Amino acid sequence: MSSSELDYSILDKFNFERKPVGVKFLTSRPKGIEKPDKVLDFCEMLVEAQGGKAFYAAKEDFTCIGPLLLGMVDEDPIFESGQVGPKLGAFKDARANRRIYDYLPRLVKNVINYVAFAPLDKMTFEPDLLIIMASVSQAEIFIRAKAYTTGEMWSARGTPVAGCSWFYIYPYLSGEMNFTVTGFGFGMRSRRLFPEGQILLSIPWDKLPGILKNLEEMNWVPYSYTIGGEEHKKRVREIVEELKQET
Hints:
Layout: E1 21-26, E2 40-41, H1 42-50, E3 55-57, E4 62-63, H2 66-69, H3 77-80, H4 84-88, H5 94-99, E5 114-119, E6 129-134, H6 136-147, H7 163-174, E7 178-181, H8 186-191, E8 199-204, H9 208-217, H10 224-227, H11 229-246
């Protein structure tokens, strides 16, 4: 794995509560980092990396449905029949649980063999995803940075269970930044992995350069955010009048 050429130093200004984490999906065993010292769920691996550990995981290092989502194992009829969710209280019945497997993001089988994780300060590879835990006000800056030069809309997608599919697999496949609120997601809430009310942003590699550049150029706290609602409305009216005079 080669070092990323992107400059991530702008992210240091956020002083995030936990370190941003780079994730890489690999067909070949990575060099320079070790396997984890314990078996973990897919979502737990993010927490390990946030805590400062760089590592890679193979099929045998995952618990839960991580290998299924990554295409490392065959379909599991116990999960895909929808029988697990009702037993946990996540769904009323199997048919509701079963429906999610028709659209749950998953990788093609037998392509990805390893997943590398590293906190930003230990990342020696160009990530496929950069996952950031941010406050609401910090996440709002990223939402604006995504649209600053493109005008594109933002969206958030997920399901009550298998949240890892939506912040690992969906952004990787779609090329869209996705986010969720910590406290959402049955498994992550049950495992108490994150402080409640934070935003988990997952940024795919092809969105990263533009977002980082826009963070460098844009005003993180626009003037309108500092003057209050009435003054903002007055300023909008003044701008509109000025523009009318120019036409």
